[in-house]
Amino acid sequence: MSASPAHGTHSRWQKPFTVFQTNLQEIDATMDIEPALDVIERHGADTWLVNAGGIAAFYPTDLPYHTRNPYLAQRPSGDFLGDAVAAANQRGIRVLARLDLSKVSPRAAADHPDWLFSTRGGQPQIYNGLYSTCPSGQYYQQRALDILDEILDRYPVDGFFFNWFNFSERDYSEVVHGICHCASCLRGFAEASGGSAFPDDHRSAGYALWRRYTETTLAVLARKYSEHTAIRDRDLAMILRRGAPIVYQEGNNAFRHMPGKDFWPHATAENVSAQTTARPATPIILNAVAHIDSTYRMGAEQPEHVAQYLIQAIARGANPSTYILGAPGRLPMAGVSLAQQVTRFHRAHHDLYAALRPAASIVLIRPGARGVSAGYLDSIEEFRGVYLALQQRHLPFDVLPIDDVTALADDGVIDRYRLVVLPGAGAVGSEIAEVLDEFVRRGGNLLTTGHSGVTADGSVEMASSPALRQTGPVQSGSDVWSTYATLDEQHRAGDFRYEGSIVPVFGTNTRYAWKRDAAAAGQLLAQAPWGPPELAYGHRPGSEPAVATMRFGSGTHSMITWTIGRTYREFGKTEVRDHLLRVLHPMADIAVSAELPEQAELILGRDHKGYVAHILNQTGARRRSFGPHIPLTGGRLAIRGANPGTHATALVSRRDLSTRHTGTSLIVELPDIDLFEVICISER
Fold this sequence. Notes:
The chain is α/β, with parallel strands linked by helices. 26% of the residues lie in helices and 23% in strands. α8 runs parallel beside α9 (339-348), α11 (374-392) packs across α14 (564-571) and α11 crosses α15. The mean pLDDT is 93. Pfam families: GHL6, Glyco_hydro_42M. Residues 387-455 form the Beta-galactosidase trimerisation domain. It comes from Nocardia flavorosea.
């Protein structure tokens, strides 16, 4: 896949910016622009993302296939985009032009059927009278360049954002139309795959190749757009979900995608961290959706929820964007009432965010192979369980997608971490295994859980692993029920008396033959009957360790053979979390920690003066959203090795903080924390 083209270091888009998106409806072509700009400025935004074209052109296009918004006829100038750009420029507000090429009118579809998505049976995808297009076709591949040129020739816009930039396998109503079978896709897939059989649907053997083809097609297309507009020499922003100089991510509730599932309150921080860790030089926009879901666009989202999107985004280094539907004031805007606190804060501290960089000593690897398979979902649960354990105990960490491990190693960035955690990933491949081995050899620490780094045939991929080989199949389901792990000595287990911490083993467990140099700590207590109660005893300490560790070069590799993250996600037992952290904490070399309720999230960064700690109040987390929060009081930060002259300031509450030295650590007394706080630690 082609790498994302980057803006030059002197580009204005390499500096922090704050966005307000008005996702307009056709009827908004007649809106009064000046009041809208008043709202945008009050919100704290310096950039306006506004409709330009695609499904409906908000300017008088002359391109025959580009449908003019019919409401332009009711506007005195006949040109909404021209009026918007002129008025914004008068106020010094940048304008990003929003394009959506995913659908065309029936007339354009009739004239150019080769542009359209096609089902296996040759049928188009039609939604609300519009015909879905295919990124492989010439509308995306060539005619989009004409639209870009027409807008750039007429208006001094500052960049472009492409909405719904993907292959439309499903529509807004969640109807699955499947893989596109248009002539362009058939031809392109054959070339990309070396003539492999075209997959019928997601169950086909070639579906993984299809996904690779679509990802590559979109990345190459994004590069084409970026390079095409770069010749204008106007320092234009090009914003897409992948492959562009500025990466777009969205925070939304999307309840329809979560039936029967728990809301994951850390999704925004996780996704932004995955981007900023892997590609720190690429700017990112986090677009916070202020309505509940596309099926309830007039339903304002809970204000605390929208604010959480933005707080998590800026803490991890993204540029905040607030997204409302329609002209400001025409629909309810209660959802953004707290968001403006965050955007105003970001605007007031652009210098801080320009210098902000990750500073955690732990990096948590996120599993790949996106999909809905049971194996993938189990891996995500393992990852999230470890994520929660770190977050709740305020051990700063960054997130890295597994597919980006090798790139991070090539750039030398992985060496800034003391500990890499690889939770439940299964086989990782020889390239990633070699990178992790080299990280350990040079002095890093690696913790794996479940059967990470083990192939389907039981081979151990990493030379640093304490395991020699897998023995027997992976245990799951009832094979692990009523099995326990302990890190404490069990001297009286023969009398069925147990001491210290005994935690359940859930999900999977894998048995290994161990290398001669491997060191064992703790043990698993073998399975015993779980019913009836009269017979539910007999757990004997076995030969399997609770954790195995081996020195490799200058570092260590430790293994927890079972899915401790899934266990914590399933049972929510503090004891399980603490079992994990007893293994993890000594490997991580934690420099900054906190005494706070577990509903607070500590995200650690650095600027040119020292540490920057974002503290997020997540006491309002609900089953499917964030609600009103409870202020956090009496918290402390501890900074190990800080100089006596170190100074601490709370930026949100605008006050200097009381500090004292205890042993080798500086203790910072935190103020009461409402929605969030940002603590700057600097030396005088």
